[in-house]
Each structure stands twice: as C-alpha cells, then as structure tokens.
Structure to design on (822 residues):
C-alpha cells in the first residue's frame, strides 16, 4: 500500500505543481530537495514520510523542467522584430491553401538567444483576401521534417485570447514545447540536408512519407481526414464541422489514437503470431518448444503497439496504453501479478517522467479515468457464464456492454462537462455501434491500407481497401450525423465552481465501489450539483459587465438579474472563422446563457459585426439595435458566403439605435445617446451616413449604484455632442475606437470622471492602439486604464458594497503566460 501511495504522490505532485502560483515556481529547486532530505529523516520513524519524499521529488522534477523551459524565451529586445534563423523542420507540416505551419528546431539565429523550439508559420504573399471565400491555392516548395532552412522570421512569444473557460493557446504551446512563434518574411533559402537526424525527427519524416503515400487514396474521400487521423494521428486533417459532429455524438475518442485502437492492434497481432507460431515446425524441430508462443506473441504485440503509437504521433493516450501493455506483458512473461492500481500508477509514472507536461492535457485525465473504470468494472467480466439459450446469453452480453458504457459515461461526466460545457445524450446509442465498427473494422482496414501503400502494392489493391474502409466509415457516420443533428443530442452544462467538480469525482468513486459498500444512489446524487446547478441571480439594480478578449475588435456582455445584452460581436477572419464562433458562442455556453435578450451592433465595421451570423445561429436573439440595416447586412453576407437566402436566423425584432431610446430591466436603465434620430442633422454635422464611426451606437447603463458607457467607435465629435446633450459622469467607460487618438478627447475624459477605462484591442495590433496620449489622458483623470491584451477578458461587477473588477490573466495567473506587450 505504501508503494502505491508513493507512486501516486509523485504523479500528483508532478502534475499539480503546474497550477501553483508563478511566484512559487520561480524559487530554486534546492528547497524542495531539502524537503526530500527532511522527509527521509522523518521516514526513519514514520513510514508515511516516504509519501512526502516522493511528493517532494515529483514537485522538484516538474519545477526543474518548468524552469528550464521558461528560460527558453524570446529576448525582450527581439520581440516583434525580424531575426535571421537557420532551422530544422521537426514536425508534420500542416498545409492550408495559402499557408504552411510546422514546429522547428533553431540551429542558429542572429541576433542570438532565440528558444530552441519554435513554431513557424509561412503565409503566401498575396493581395486582398476575401473574408467570405476560401483563399486560392498558393504554391510552396516541398516541406518535410528533417529539412534545413534559412529564414527571416518576425518573432513573438506564444499568445492567445484569455477568456473564462476558453481554450488556452499559451498553455498548449507550453505542452508542445515551442516557446516562440515566427512568421516568415521574405524568401526563405533551402540549406543542405543533414543525414544525421535525431530519433524524433526521423519518426516525423517517416510519418510525412506515410502521409504522402496514403494521400492519393483518401484525399478525395468524404471522410478522408478521419482516415488520416485513425492511421497517423493527423487530427488537423479533420474538418471543424466534423469535429462538431463527433463532439455532439460523443465519438471524439474514436477518431483520436486512443487506447482502444492501440490495444486492439496489439491483441490482433498477438493472436495472429500465436496462431502461426504454434504451427511452425521443421521435422521434429518445433518453434514453440524453443520459444513459447505466449512469449513471442506478447513481444510482437507490444512491438506492434509501440510502432503504431510512434507513427500516430506518440500522444498521451497512446503513451499510456503502450506503457500499460508493456508492464502487463512483462508481468505476464515473468509470472508476476501487479493488480490494476499498480499497473495504472506505473504507467502514469512513466508518462510523467517522459513528459512532465502531460498533466496539462485533457487526454491524460480522460485516458486514465476511462481505463480505471474498465478495471473497476472488470470483476463482472470474471463471473462464471450462466447457462441458457443463445439469445439469453447474447442478451446478457448486450446488457453487460450497456452497463459498462453507462458507467464510463457517468464516470467521465465530471471531466467532460467542464471541458465542453455539454453532456452528449447521443453518446450511448452512437457508441453502441461505432466502437465496434470504427475500432474493429475501419481502423484495421485503414492500417492495412497504410501498409499496402507503404509497400507500393498495386494501386487497385489499395483503392479497394480504401473504398471498403470508407464505405464502412460512411455507413457508421450516417446515423451518427442524424443523432448529432437532433436538438436533444446534447444538454448544455454551465461552468461550475471547482468544489462541485470535486464532489462529482467523489460520486464517481462511490459508483465504482463494489456493491454493498454504499448505495449507488449516493454516488449519483453527488453528480447532480456539478451538472444541474445554475449561477445565482443578481439582485435588483446590480449588473455584471464582461469585456471579452477577442483581439482587435469589440464584444461586451452586460448581464442583469434576468436578461443578457450583447454589445458588438467581434471580427471576421474568413468564411468559417469569426469571433462569434471562436469566442462568444463558447463563452455563452459556458455561462449557461441560452438566449440573448438584446443585441446591439454599434456600426458596420467588420471588427464589430464580423461574428453576427455565428451568434445568431448559436443562440436566439429577442431584439436587436443597430445603426445600419441589419437585414440588408445579413442578406449581403448570405450572398457572399453562397448560402441559401434567409438561412440566417433573424432577431425577433430588429430596431435602429437612436438617441433617447431607453428601457429599464431589473432596476437597470439603458439609454442610447447616439446617433441622433434626425438623419439630416447627422449628415450636416458629420458628412454622411457612410462614415460608420460617426453613427456608432453609444449606450449608457445605469444600475442602482454604478453606471457604464459603451462608445463603440464614436469619435471626439460624437463625444462632445453627447456631453452637450446631457450625459453625466459614469463609473466605467469602454473607451471609443480601442483607444485611438480619434476618440477620448480631453474635455470628454475629464467630464466622465470614470474610475475604470477599458480598452478592447489586439496583442501587438498594427494600428498601435491604444495611443499613448489616450492612455495617459485617462490615467491622469483618475481612471484605472485596463487593456484586454494585458488583462485578458475583464469582468466588472456592480454590487451594493462596491464596484469590483478583475482580469482573467490576473485572476488565473499561470507560469506559461507570455509577457504583455508594452
């Protein structure tokens, strides 16, 4: 028992060290090693101190690696500047129509000091790109792992938006090992090839070759990207729309290289070798008498599993499965019995030793959790089969499989709900047929195709296998698509406090205990708070303001006791990419917001309205206000996107924002101060309605105790006009035009007397926002100037006691966060 506790302590300490405050991780390693020495001395009298020894060793191991990786950073003097770099490509190259992206090892740089591992993005030089059409295919030189290039790269640290419950791009960069992002400038130069390559580079080059020989047979297939993912772990080949289908149907684990695929391959190879081994003889010489078939089959199965894991990218689930198979195989050959818990802990130990950042990946927890459930449920598998007719035996098997699937689904709920903020109800029927078809039929066929293509078998053979594999996969996906499209395919689950998640994990533990210890109903009851609780309601007159981190654009959510207002929806980047889909809709889901009562679109600039269509498709909108014709705007987008006319869901009521339009909800008053309803007066004063910034909606929010002002892109002239119209001081201002010097005039800033001034802007944006004079002006007026590129998403809470604020980067500070730009 002490041995298992020590292993668990090492893994837990090495994993949870990543979530300590950055200041703790800046300490040298020697205090932790000193704690190890003290624990060893204590262990002479107290056996439990050995657990402390291993915990301190685990923490020291992680901190040592963390400090080493943090030391690999772009020098402050070289950030956002061009460096001359000689590099070696070290990963599969992700190819888009107009870009290439890959991970590389820096061989030399000028100026020196760049991190050893970087991510390189090579965009094609082209003119104006349409935001509503896919970019045209551009030509690039052939890129493959092992090549060496001399490039001019604009270097920046890894950076991504930081919104509550959103994807953390900087954490992802840390787990992948690259500590800088370089954008290609000019024309790169190919260098001589170095045949002396490292093992990781060699394996990536092998994967590149295998992908090339496989592509002719899958690239024209509807599910070709899934076939690449099943064979090579190339998940970037799966389209975003297909990922949505897999998420809603609960089949994501089947299109990733998981333990199911690796174990099945190992068992298949072992069974095949065992069958053949027993039949190999030469006269009286019998192969099985020299080396037992069981031993040979075990080692071949392990070797095959290892080879599959390597060509599939060596992800955490693959690592865990291979290490578990290795441990079980060695124990089987040596006649040892470790038990389920020791096997899991040893596998986890080796995973963490190999990759100290494995604990930051979701696959680490989901993979070990799923296998733990299988082990816990394994006692039933050892029961003596009960007699009966064939249909009774099959009925018991189906009932057993159903119980197992339900238990795995319940066990993974506490982990999956905080990640995806929904529960897939379609997962039970979908997994019932998909596990067998994809795991036992499609995956072996795809691997057979890979082997045939690599051995240059006749193309007709390869095409036949590819068509058969795709036919079975398409047969599997048809009912899956139907299930995913049902309204009840998934149920939203808002983000909860971590304490409820811990309680749910305790409930899962109770469910896994043998019958008789506690009631299964007790375990189920502990799952309820994490899945069913909703956020507490605000008091009358209180409000919450959320300035989301969406780069260079605007999106502000205002929440009262019973209603939600969304002011602007961020930028559009392409036909399938905008902030509505990327940031706003996921944030609304995480907060449990299923309807927007009021949508305000300040003006028709793309960085304010780019996500409109995605937001309208994601959640119903009761009423909208805009300074332009929203219906005409949506009709134009439908034409440009080449989608059916009228396919975009419209708000129930679409109105124009006009000066003096006002309403009250939950004791909070809303009022538009701009633009004026008199269009003739507007045109006479500010040119024409084509000046989009000049007609930007300006909205004031006044609660029982505090007030806020949302300016959109209103300029100095509009600020002067609304002050003259009678606007009084406010507590919070979302500054106009992202802090541009065309807004935030001196008289206006002084008149506002704001305590908080918020600027929504992009990291290293090309406009130079916010202007230094504007920031200084607000700060000298007594306001605290908060930037989303520094703070991440900003939350302001109006409460009876005070006005509270916090930023996501500060509230959840982590050591992997990149330094903010000046």
């Amino acid at each position: 028992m002490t041995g298992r506790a020590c292993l668990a302590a090492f893994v837990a300490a090495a994993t949870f060290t990543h979530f300590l405050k950055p200041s703790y991780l800046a300490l040298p390693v020697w205090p932790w090693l000193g704690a190890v020495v003290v624990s060893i001395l204590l262990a002479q009298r107290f056996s439990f101190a050995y657990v402390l020894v291993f915990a301190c060793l685990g923490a020291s191991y992680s901190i040592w690696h963390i400090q080493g990786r943090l030391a690999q950073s772009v020098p402050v003097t070289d950030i956002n500047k061009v460096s001359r770099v000689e590099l070696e490509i070290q990963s599969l190259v992700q190819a888009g129509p107009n870009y290439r992206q890959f991970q590389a090892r820096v061989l030399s740089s000028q100026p020196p000091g760049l991190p050893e591992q970087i991510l390189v993005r090579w965009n094609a030089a082209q003119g104006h790109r349409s935001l509503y059409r896919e970019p045209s295919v551009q030509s690039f030189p052939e890129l493959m792992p092992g090549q060496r290039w001399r490039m001019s790269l604009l270097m920046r640290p890894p950076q991504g938006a930081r919104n509550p419950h959103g994807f953390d791009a900087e954490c992802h960069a840390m787990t992948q090992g690259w500590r800088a992002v370089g954008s290609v400038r000019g024309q790169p130069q190919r260098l001589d090839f170095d045949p002396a390559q490292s093992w990781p580079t060699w394996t990536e080059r092998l994967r590149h070759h295998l992908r090339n020989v496989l592509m002719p047979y899958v690239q024209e297939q509807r599910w070709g990207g899934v076939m690449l993912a099943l064979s090579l772990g190339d998940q970037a080949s799966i389209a975003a729309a297909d990922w949505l289908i897999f998420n809603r149907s609960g089949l994501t684990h089947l299109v990733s290289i998981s333990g199911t695929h690796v174990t099945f391959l190992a068992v298949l190879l072992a069974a095949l070798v065992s069958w053949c081994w027993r039949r190999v003889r030469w006269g009286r010489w019998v192969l099985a008498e020299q080396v037992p078939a069981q031993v040979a089959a075990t080692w071949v199965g392990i070797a095959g599993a290892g080879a599959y894991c390597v060509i599939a990218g060596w992800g955490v689930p693959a690592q865990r499965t291979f290490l578990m198979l290795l441990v079980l195989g060695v124990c089987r050959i040596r006649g040892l019995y470790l038990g389920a818990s020791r096997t899991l802990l040893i596998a986890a130990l080796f995973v963490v030793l190999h990759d100290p950042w494995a604990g930051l990946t979701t696959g680490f927890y989901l993979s070990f959790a799923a296998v733990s459930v299988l082990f816990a449920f394994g006692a039933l598998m050892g029961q003596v089969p009960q007699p009966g007719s064939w249909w009774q035996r099959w009925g018991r098997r189906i009932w057993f499989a159903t119980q197992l699937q339900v238990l795995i689904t319940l066990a993974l709920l506490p982990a999956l709900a905080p990640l995806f903020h929904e529960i897939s109800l379609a997962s039970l029927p979908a997994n019932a047929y998909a596990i067998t078809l994809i795991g036992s039929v499609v995956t072996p066929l795809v691997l057979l195709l890979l082997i045939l293509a690599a051995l240059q078998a006749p193309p007709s053979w390869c095409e036949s296998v590819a068509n058969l594999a795709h036919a079975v996969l398409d047969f599997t996906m048809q009912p899956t698509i139907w299930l995913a499209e049902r309204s009840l395919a998934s149920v939203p689950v808002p983000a909860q406090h971590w304490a409820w998640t811990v309680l749910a994990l305790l409930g899962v533990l109770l469910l896994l205990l043998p019958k008789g210890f506690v009631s299964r109903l007790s375990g189920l009851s502990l799952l309820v708070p994490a899945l069913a609780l909703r956020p507490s309601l605000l008091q009358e007159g209180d409000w919450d303001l959320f300035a989301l981190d969406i780069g260079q654009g605007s999106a502000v959510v205002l929440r009262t006791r019973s209603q939600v207002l969304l002011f602007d929806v961020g930028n559009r980047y392409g036909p399938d990419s905008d902030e509505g889909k990327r940031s706003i809709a996921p944030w609304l889901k995480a907060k449990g917001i299923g309807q927007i009562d009021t949508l305000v679109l300040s003006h028709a600039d793309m960085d304010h309205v780019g996500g409109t269509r995605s937001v309208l498709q994601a959640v119903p909108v009761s009423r909208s206000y805009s300074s332009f014709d929203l219906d005409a705007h949506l009709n134009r987008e439908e034409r440009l996107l080449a989608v059916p006319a009228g396919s975009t869901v419209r708000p129930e009521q679409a109105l124009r924002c006009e000066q003096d339009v006002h309403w009250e909800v939950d004791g909070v008053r809303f009022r538009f101060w701009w633009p004026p309803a008199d269009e003739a007066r507007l045109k006479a004063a500010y040119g024409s309605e084509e000046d989009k910034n000049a007609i930007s909606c300006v909205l004031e929010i006044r609660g029982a105790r505090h007030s806020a002002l949302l300016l959109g892109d209103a300029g100095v002239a509009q600020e002067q006009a609304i002050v003259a119209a009678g606007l009084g001081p406010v507590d919070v201002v979302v500054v106009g035009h992202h802090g541009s010097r065309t807004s935030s005039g001196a008289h206006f800033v002084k008149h506002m007397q704001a305590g908080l001034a918020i600027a929504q802007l992009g990291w290293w944006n090309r406009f130079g926002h916010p202007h230094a004079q504007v920031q200084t002006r607000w700060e000298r007026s007594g306001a605290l100037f908060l930037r989303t590129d520094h703070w991440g998403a900003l939350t302001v809470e109006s409460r009876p006691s005070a006005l509270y604020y916090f930023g996501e980067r500060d509230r959840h500070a982590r050591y992997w966060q990149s330094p903010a730009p000046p």
In short: The chain has four domains: 2-70, 76-197, 208-377+388-492, 543-811. Residues 390-420 form the longest helix (31 residues). The chain has a mean pLDDT of 87. The first strand starts at residue 81 and ends at 89.
